[in-house]
Amino acid sequence: MKPDHFEVTSACSAVHHILARVGDKWTVLVVSYLGNRSMRFNELKRAINGISQKMLTSTLRSLERDGFVTRTVYPTIPPRVDYELTDLGRDLLVPVRGLGDWAIKNEQRVSEARARFDAAHGNAEVQPGFADAAE
Amino acid sequence: MKPDHFEVTSACSAVHHILARVGDKWTVLVVSYLGNRSMRFNELKRAINGISQKMLTSTLRSLERDGFVTRTVYPTIPPRVDYELTDLGRDLLVPVRGLGDWAIKNEQRVSEARARFDAAHGNAEVQPGFADAAE
DNA sequence: CTGTATCCAGTCAGATACTG
DNA sequence: CAGTATCTGACTGGATACAG
């Protein structure tokens, strides 16, 4: 993690850390799947069709380091590793889902705002993945 | 944002969009300052000591595009531009603060988990104070 | 199966210079 | 004052190869 160039309070950096983790490309997806039940590495990888091994590993490691998931290794042949949300991880899911619900409820308002902005600025270019709800 | 390799619902992409915006390095800081009152460009820049002009501009533009802030230009000499949160922006502040409160409340638990993880993995570059009492 | 190591292309953020 | 343009180093994420 990069050091901040400016003075930050510990509350501020705590907030920023959580926000950055949650805003991460794969974190929420991983945590959401794990919110239902514990899963194995490749099971997770197949579920999140599109994540690379590297990214899944590093996402899982970060989550483990911050105490959001546990990693349980069964030294069998072939090896088996289970990932599961901790209490802290399940706890985190609450405010994250709050934000998620907000996003779903306000999706329309945001895409309308974007359509308005783009029209006003003559930019007809559409960002993939989020412009389909515009109307 | 890149096109998704996997099937996504529009709800999923809406959530991801909001999460990515909020997880952005400067967004929350800017929105927080604007949560108190409207501010001018350089005022904001001085307040967030460390942000570059470029990043402030692009953060503000994204926020404006998504309908979270308004940009008001007074064609005076010297020019003056006020930024202010919209209703949508103030609305967004609610779940974001929920997550922020969570981060502050659970800061200790997260840093304890990190200390534990780093200790277990031989990375001794952690802050002294509350060492692991477990085991 | 579950990773680690390496390489590489694309993107991001900061510094700097310039404009209205 | 409030930006825009450009260059560049740093970081990110993906693909591939390899190891326990």
Poorly predicted regions of chain A are 1-7, 125-135
Order of helices and strands of chain A: HHEHHEEH
Biggest sheet layout of chain A:
3 strands, antiparallel
Main interface by residue count: A-B, 56 and 55 residues
Describe the structure.
The structure is a homodimer of 135-residue chains. Chain A has 135 residues and is mainly alpha-helical. Helices cover 58% and strands 10% of the residues of chain A. Chain A contains 5 helices and 3 strands. Chain A has helices at 10-23, 27-36, 41-47, 53-65, 87-120, and strands at 39-40, 69-74, 80-85. In chain A, strands 1-3-2 form a 3-stranded antiparallel sheet. In chain A, helix 2 crosses helix 5. The longest helix of chain A has 34 residues, at 87-120. Chain A is elongated and about 60 Å long. The termini of chain A are far apart. In chain A, 29% of the residues are buried. Residues 1-7 and 125-135 of chain A have low confidence and may be disordered. At the A-B interface, helix 1 and helix 5 of A face helix 1 and helix 5 of B. The structure holds a DNA duplex (20 and 20 nucleotides).
